[in-house]
Amino acid sequence: MTAYTAEWVLPMTGSAPIHRGFISIEHERITAVGDGRSDGARDLGSVALMPALVNAHTHLELSYLRGQVPPAHRFLDWIRTIMETRRRYPDPADARILDAARDAIAEAHATGTGLIGDISNTLVTPPLLREASMPGQVFFELLRFNAEDAQPIIREARAKVDAAAADNSQVRVSLAPHAPYSVSPALFAAVRADLDAHPGTVTSVHLSESPEELEFIKHGTGPWRVLLEELGAWTDAWQPPPEVSPVGYLEEIGFLDRRVIAVHGVQFDGDDLDRLRSRGMTIVSCPRSNQHVGVGAPPLEAFYAMNVSVAFGTDSLASVPDLNLFAEIAEARRLAPRVSARAILESATRCGAVALGFGEDYGTIEPGKRAAVIAVRVPANVADVEEYLLSGIAASDITWVS
Ligand SMILES: [Zn+2]
What we know:
The chain is an alpha/beta fold and about 400 residues long. It has helices at about 75-85, 95-110, 125-130, 150-165, 185-195, 210-220, 225-230, 245-250, 270-280, 285-290, 300-305, 325-335, 340-355, 385-390, and strands spanning about 1-10, 20-25, 30-35, 40-45, 45-50, 55-60, 115-120, 135-140, 170-175, 205, 260-265, 280-285, 310, 375, 400. Strands 1, 2, 3, 4, 5, 14 and 15 form a 7-stranded mixed β-sheet that branches. Helix 3 (about 125-130) links the parallel strand 7 (about 115-120) and strand 8 (about 135-140). It is globular and about 70 Å long. The structure holds zinc ion. Zinc ion (ZN) binds near residues 57, 119, 206, 263 and 315.
């Protein structure tokens, strides 16, 4: 058994930080946490011990696009640039793609992230996560707006997911539809059936990200319609439901469920938030990315005021400068000054772990949990350690304990 004492311990179980506390670890599991000293404990000094952060939404396979997709004023401009840039790298196993993803995982680890929710179109990332011993939930993303018969697509995708899942429970793989404007109702229904056939799995959908998405789902018009037609992906078989939001649309086609993670939600209104809360769903917010791609800032204070579960993700390096989740929650704090620091920190740890289906092992410091614990250096004169942790923490201030 190894024990550590520290100036601060943040269990993230809803209670206040412990001033001068300890944790004990045995066989890579936490066995005890409390205040005071523990015999034979190693004193880590002026640090905050806390659970490793959870980056609940990123696209590691896009890491090679770091710095290549400039900020946009309109979402469609950003999408068009990224589509063009991706065409220059047609081979998913291109060494530049794999090396950039490896570097991104290393950066996430160095900045205190211990669990990742990753979107992948090519499934090159599960082996990279395993190689780095980074636990994760990989979502194999499906896009096909004009798929009327989804069965062949789902059969092929399920076979790939089963092959990629191997037998390593620390890196799980499931299916995920991209977004309401890029996936047919039949394909949504097929993913839902697959989810029901695999209890315990979770899925994810990009939802209510841009004003263009709202216009398309409400009226079937706008820049999305134009892009779908250009790509040959539009179908007259799709009729927009009258005046419903993207959340209302997913409700109508039976896709809303507590195992569905709703990513972004920048355009959510009160009814949308009610629908998500009543189902116990989690919103993953990526505030830096939202502003980079031109869709505006997410209504974070409304998310918390409506008591919806919130987690955070960085999104990909095509829309953020780094995978440091501490930088993401610093931005969240700037956008939501009235939300408690504790609630934001719980979002970045426990809520993310629970949403990804890893709540039994990660997200808090409690006996029985895996010892995925980081120590963040805290200056001696800091009075509010929770607030300090939202001020932007760099890799140089973080050490892994275990
Ligand atoms: Zn995304």
